[in-house]
Amino acid sequence: MPNLFDVHRQDLIEKEQPLAARMRPRTLDEFVGQDHIVGPGRLLRRAIQADQLSSLIFYGPPGTGKTTLARIIANTTRAHFIAINAVLAGVKDIRAAIEIAQEKRGMFGQKTILFVDEVHRFNKAQQDALLPHVENGTIILIGATTENPYFEVIKALVSRSRIFQLKPLTEEDLYVIAHRTLSDPERGYGKLNVHIEEDALAHLVNVANGDARALLNALELAVETTPPDENGVIHIDLAVAEESIQRRAVLYDKEGDVHFDTISAFIKSLRGSDPDAALYWLAKMVYAGEDPRFIFRRMLIFAAEDVGLADPRAIQVVASCAQAYDYVGLPEGRFHLAEAALYLATAAKSNTTMGFFEALRTVEQEREAEVPAHLRDASRDREGFGHGEGYLYPHAFRDHWVAQQYLPDSLQGKVFYRPSAQGYEATIADQVARRREAQLAAMVEGAFPAPPEILTFTGKAVDRDSERWLQRTISNAGERLARVRERIFETAAIERHHLVLDLNAGSGLLTWEAARRAAEGGVYALARTPREAAALEQMAANLPPLRRPIILEGPLDRLPDLLAAVEPGLRFDAIIGRNALMRHPDKAAAFRLLASLLAPDGRLALAEAVPKRGQRLHRLLDLSELASPLAERLIAAEEAIYEDETDPALNWDENTLAAALVQAGLKGEVVVETETVDFHITEALLDRWFAPTGDSRPSYRQRLAAAMSEEEIAEVEALFRRKLTQKIVPWQTATAYVSARINAL
Q: Which of 136, 80, 82, 87 is nearest to 111 (CA)?
């Protein structure tokens, strides 16, 4: 039981806390920003609300809400919550937390969440001490770090945790926080008469640079140090704001992730010949206090690696600038940094020095080749072994060159150096080529592209069974359907934290792939019939509850109501579908509905089979066996099927979709691709075509009956059965790929 002194001390602590601590959100509804991970429908929000958390690592810049999210979890979870700071805690504190967790689990069956702030400050031994207890479920670890967990957290912990990357808050987020602080009478300044000018608040928001803590600290300083006027108004103008926050907070750790990311951006800007971007990233590094000698070292490497012989003077310029910097120092030395960067950014580029590393790989991988006898040292054994015999001294020949063998026998024809057509190197390319033609038996050309870079990951040890199940499920699609699926997902550009809506889930062709790709987001799947919904629910049971798609059942027009019943106000990062609109009677209305469900930067990616552009049955066989008038009536009757204004499943094409996009206010394109595949005509299929009535739609026979007599249809059917039964025929399909956004870039 706390005594009166403890209560009084706690009250004082709460009242005297800095503003940033007092204004820390206590619930998800108060939390501002990071919608990509805690917005409505996202996996993390669902996990917090359902109290079904696995181990997590929050990674992001200061002031973006990592610790706040952990505190919100502490306020909502039924699990026992323990918080420690890695700066202050040691192995002893970890052991004490584990003992409490074991006691809670053994006596009450209660889980324990261990929150470790600044988890990257734990050394390897401390992190190893956590590992077995994370593995056996004694604790659920929540770590917060400003450093890249892939570099600063041991692989075993990373692989057992979901990583959520938090981004700097937007200016809109910071304005919300500032206005909330000024109006909150309990924790903020709602009881004071504070008037802050627009340009003053804009300055605080701008210089805070996405850091809520920096904004609140500056606002606190401005309010607390400004006396009220005679009317009791605390007036914050631009001058006060500038005094309160004078220097932009730039996240830059010389040994951390941002350090490497920034120098990477600088080098890539040089490589891309963008002097403006190069100067920006250079300025960011200098502003943050990066050692200029480190920058010069990287530029010296770049001068040889990426400029090379396209401009041999580049390395001289950079070396001279580095020497000049050592002589004059800062601040004037910044001119030499800028000159070197601008020279490299505007120089011709060539990476032909990479040929050395190809040669190095050859040495490492291939069987060691002997030095040709005529190239060996002749000073010791010329007479005994004939070493050096036959060597032609180039300076004794015209142009100081002569064709002779220099590579080992096994590597004749191997090419390591490939001159570029840039700058100075272009002038020697022809010369090198001519000489190779004279001395090499063959010329080998090649290219070696560099591999690609993502914001969120789920370790391999997490949900391994469900991952394997997802892989099996999505691989069951046929080759052609797999191509369609890949095309849709390529257009949708789904990331792991995205909210995805599958419009026509059916067999789950797209649903399960979406569940795999948006593992930290959420997937909603619309099934058109109870049978489809039941099948999807049964398949989803193989996944952990939080990773299961939300299955909705009903027609497309009821989708807004279905979603509202689950999670009001959802907006999707990607809406995907295969044959989702082909039978919808009003394509423009359908697109308007989908536009209302897209997030501002969301993408719509659909694949719609276009029957009007597809296979005609009469083209599968030779109609010469039919009388000419009958053949013509058959063709006309079949073509009329696709002009029936009452049949929305057949009477449209890609132009209809493109016009509907425009009417719905969406910007995008519709691309039709045709494909011919082998198709097996079975007796059962022919029976369906020529059935008196169709199951849910008119059969082929019913369609023909509009223009042909029963006797003529019987003659046509006899021809079909005679020529096509059990045959493999080429079948043409046409697919319209729809790619659209609300605000296309």
A: 80
- Nearest Cα to Cα of residue 515 among 543, 541, 538: 543
Residue 331: cis peptide before it, omega within 30 degrees of 0: yes
Contact in structure between 641 and 689 (CB atoms under 8 Å): no
| Number of residues written out for the chain | 745
**Dihedral angle computed from the Cα positions of residues 308, 311, 315 and 316, in that order, rounded to the nearest 10 degrees:** 150
| Percentage of the chain lying above the pLDDT 90 cut | 13
Do 591 and 601 form a contact (C-beta atoms < 8 A)? no
pLDDT, tens digit, for every residue of 222-259?
888 888 888 888 888 888 888 877 655 555 554 555 67
3-state secondary structure of 144: strand
| Distance separating alpha carbons of residues 519 and 312, to the nearest angstrom | 49
Say which DSSP state 305 is in: I
* Cβ atoms 502, 605 nearer than 8 A: no
Alpha-helical segments (H) within 495-529: 511-517
Q: Which two tokens stand for residue 661?
A: 């996009």
Q: Kindly report the pTM of this predicted structure.
A: 0.61
Cβ neighbours of residue 235 under 8 Å, at least 6 residues apart? 195, 197, 226, 229
Residue 445 pLDDT = 27
Secondary structure of 429-449 in the HEC alphabet? Answer: HHHHHHHHHHHCCCCCCCCCC
The answer to whether 380 and 338 have CB atoms below 8 angstroms apart is no
Spatial neighbors of 533 by CB under 8 A, at least 6 apart, are: 527, 551, 552, 553
**C-beta neighbour count of 299 within 10 angstroms:** 27
Contact status, residue 598 vs residue 604, Cβ threshold 8 Å: yes
Domains in the chain with CATH codes: 34-165 (3.40.50.300), 257-349 (1.20.272.10), 371-407 (no CATH), 463-610 (3.40.50.150), 611-647+683-725 (no CATH)
At residue 713's C-alpha, the angle toward residues 709 and 715, to 5°, is: 120
C-alpha 20/C-alpha 527 separation (Å) is: 47
Q: What is the mean pLDDT of the chain?
A: 80
Q: Residue 433: what pLDDT?
A: 62
- Integer Cα distance of 606 and 581 in angstroms: 9
Crossing angle of helices 333-346 and 313-328, in 10° steps, is 170
Q: Cα dihedral angle (388, 394, 398, 404), rounded to 10 degrees?
A: 70
Per-residue pLDDT band for 403 (boundaries 50, 70, 90) equals low
Tokens of 559: 């989708």
**CA 222 to each of CA 186, 203, 237, 308, 654: distance values in angstroms, whole numbers, following the listed order:** 19, 12, 9, 54, 60
Half-sphere exposure of 64 (CA within 13 A, CB side): 24
SS3 255: coil
